[in-house]
Structures are given as structure tokens and as C-alpha cells.
Amino acid sequence: MKLRSYYGDVLADTWFSKVLTFDDAGVSDHPNHKALPEGVKQLLQSLPDGPAKPRLFTLISVPKSGKYVGILAPVMAKVDLYISKTMLYYDVLITRALENAEIIPAGSKAPSEMNRTLMPVFVSGIPAYRTAFQAMLAHKSQLEWFRWLYLLFSRYMWINEWTEVKN
């Protein structure tokens, strides 16, 4: 496995707490991107268990309809978060009302209270967007016409959501 032979040495010589990579949809459906999460997962599983073992997070690929909303992405994410919080509130409220009416047993957990974990989200401001833009400009060979569209309209330039992969 090339990944293990190359990155295994890096892992042995460097301490870090998290590894960030693509999910198995690969964001752009690129075969190399799609293969990375499984390769990294296997690599991390080959490391000895312990408190210093890095955690693996994969970037959540979004459908094409949401990929190219550009600077609207953070606003849309905020609206989504507000709607989710409102739904959680009503979920708990309805569960408590059903308990009070003795329709369900007291002490029941609302579905929203079960296995609830916060999803790590990274939101870029203007300075971070500029940094990412300048980083791409440093790779002139990559700047095909469609990459300019990506730089201008991609949601991933503004917001990234991550999910942890359990070993």
C-alpha cells in the first residue's frame, strides 16, 4: 500500500490529533479522492491504540445543487442550524407533553436527545477565503477555466462540515 509506506513514516515522526480527508464520495467524485478515506482509515488502524492515536474526520460531500452557492453558503448553513434547533426544541416539547398526558412513559428521551453529537463545521471569513484563493493562484497549472468558477462559487471555499469516522 503506497499510502502506508509514504504516510506511515510521517505518522511515526510527527504527532497530531486529527486527520482531515475527503469522504467516500470524494467531493468531486474523483477516484483518488474517493479512495483516500478508506486508505487513511486502514493506516490509522495499523497504529497502536492509545491516547495519542489521531482521530479521523471526513469532509461531507454535498449534492451538486448545494455545491455552487458561494458566499451564500454560510447564510444558508445558519438558516439550516436555526431550523434544526427549532425542530429539536419542538421535539423535546412534544415528548414532554406526551409524558405529561401519560401517553408515553415518564423519563422518555426525545428522539433528538438520543445520540446527539455536534458536527464540526469550519466557516471561512473574508481573510480565510482570500488565503485559500491565493493558495490556488500559486498553482497556476491547476487554473483551468472551471477552477475559476470553483474559486468564485464553491460552497467549500466558505463552509466545510466534517464527520468523525470511528475506528
UniProtKB/TrEMBL annotation:
GO terms for cellular component: endoplasmic reticulum; membrane. It comes from the Eukaryota. InterPro entries: GlcNAc_PI_deacetylase-related (IPR003737), LmbE-like_dom_sf (IPR024078). Its EC number is 3.5.1.89. GO terms for biological process: GPI anchor biosynthetic process. GO terms for molecular function: N-acetylglucosaminylphosphatidylinositol deacetylase activity. Belongs to the PIGL family. This is N-acetylglucosaminylphosphatidylinositol deacetylase.
